[in-house]
Amino acid sequence: MKHPLRTLLLALILGAIAAGLVFYMTPRTPEAPPPVAAAPPAAAPDTAEPQIQFPVEPAAALPTLPTLEDSDPSFSEGLAALFGAQDFKTYFIPQNLIRRIVATVDNLPRETSARRLLPVKSASGLLIVTEEGERREIGAANAARYLPFVKLAESVDTKKLVAAYVQHYPLFQQAYRELGFPKLYFNDRLVQVIDHLLETPEVSGPIELVRRKVLYRFADPELEARSAGQKIMIRIGTANAARLKARLRDIRRELTSQSIKP
Fold it and tell me: What does pTM read for this prediction?
């Protein structure tokens, strides 16, 4: 990106950040996700020609952009300059960044989200679970594991973030088409996903878990039936979710302004 790739932080703020925080609540340290060779196929291609709800100003794109296939070096360089080389190594997966962002954002309102497609690494340590007899709950200390991601999401200026996203929007749209949505508009999907995450209910009190084989699930069937993105927002804790929602509202406001320009 030009301020290369504040755009990737969208994935963090939109829940790809949360997706990297241990999607399946496994009690074991997850394996590092393998590189993505290509965007995943969609269940079915789109046939309708919908009206674009939140257009990105075409003139706002940079006059010269790398190809999607060759975009990783500039994206990685920009992130390393923005966050520092060590933070880049700590938090980000440098291969196929735009495709990872697009695939993860699109998956968040769905039932599952593939760990191998995440643009950020998992939170450190293991899920903290308290046990009393047969009852298992997410431990109160578990939320602290996600604070570095939350602080990272809060560290970037919203206007500059969206400006960088708009400048590189053609690459995001191309990745979305390759994902299997040639007639849909990624910025509309992005806003839709933000709204979906903002609708995540606030869960008061301890969250009970059940363990099936090596994985933990929510004991409450209504919570377990939530989308991948909403379950992530619940799992990271009420305080962390509130802070991420505040940034999501800021991002949405910028993305849906009358004319999105850098």
Answer: 0.78
